[in-house]
Specification:
The chain has helices at about 15, 110-115, 215-230, and strands spanning about 1-5, 30-35, 40-50, 55-60, 70-75, 80-90, 95-105, 140-145, 150-160, 165, 175-185, 185-200, 205-210. With about 240 residues, it is mainly beta. The protein has 2 domains: about 1-120, predicted glycosyltransferase like domains (Thrombin, subunit H, Beta Barrel), CATH 2.40.10.220; about 140-230, predicted glycosyltransferase like domains (Thrombin, subunit H).
Length: about 240
């Protein structure tokens, strides 16, 4: 099996990512990969990542079929990010593939320290969000004006005063309108929202549409404190529930 982008010489796939000007690190790390495979089935797997930079990596020994253009999630230690598959080729072992992946915009590299590349551009002013987003586990409830649909009790894994990201294998469609409820200390906060990004097999980004500036600032201050005091893990974030 060989899958490649139009116009790419398949013989050059293993070294394609080396052509980029950024320095790459010759290291092998174990990462957790998840998403939807080429057959539309969800998968989770630990794989080797090498040829690392802050922009991408080479994944070796993936036991699931992938296709160019897929979006997948990758985690190293406690850091997660979304990546696009830019090439796929057969691996040395039967029924396995190797894949080159490139980080998506507004994502921070989960192995940035290993790559020795400093902060991903999202931390250098290219992120147009008004508030800093925090990678904390934050309980939220998602509901719909259409009462026939079941409410979702879940966790945001990336949240700020203007929106959040929810990891899920089956994200809502782009543009879906939702109602969001969560707790800040002992206060119940509710807002309407809209799905701004939808990555099958990975998750969805939701923008808060009805929080006034005072509530946004209050939420952001709470998240800033939460991230500082619990090391990025929102223990008891829904304690007033």
């Amino acid at each position: 099996m060989m899958v490649a982008s139009p116009g790419i010489n398949a013989a050059r796939l293993p070294t394609l990512m080396d052509d980029r000007p950024e320095d790459r690190v010759d290291a092998q790390i174990i990462v957790r990969v998840w998403g939807m495979d080429a057959d539309g089935r969800p998968f989770f797997q630990n794989v080797n990542a090498g040829n690392i930079s802050s922009e991408g990596a080479l994944l070796s020994g993936v036991r699931h079929r992938l296709k160019v253009g897929d979006t997948i999630g990758i985690q190293h230690n406690d850091q997660k990010a979304r990546f696009k598959v830019v090439w796929v080729k057969d691996a040395a072992k039967p029924r396995m593939v190797d894949a080159g992946v490139q980080i998506l915009p507004s994502q921070r590299s989960p192995w940035v320290d290993l790559a020795k590349a400093g902060e991903h551009p999202v931390a250098q002013g290219k992120d147009k969000r008004r508030f800093q987003r925090h990678k904390v586990l934050f309980p939220i409830e998602i509901s719909f004006d259409d009462t026939r649909r079941t409410h979702l009790q879940t966790n945001a894994t990336d949240i700020g005063g203007r929106g959040c990201y929810v990891e899920t294998l089956l994200p809502l469609q782009l543009g879906t309108k939702v109602n969001i409820k969560f707790w800040v200390e002992s206060e119940n906060v509710q807002t309407s929202g809209i799905v701004r990004t939808s990555d099958p097999g990975v998750g969805m980004g939701i923008e808060f549409m009805a929080l006034d500036n005072v509530v946004q600032e209050w939420l952001q201050a709470y998240l800033d404190k939460l991230d500082d005091t619990v090391g990025g893990k929102a223990k008891g974030a829904g304690g007033g529930k």
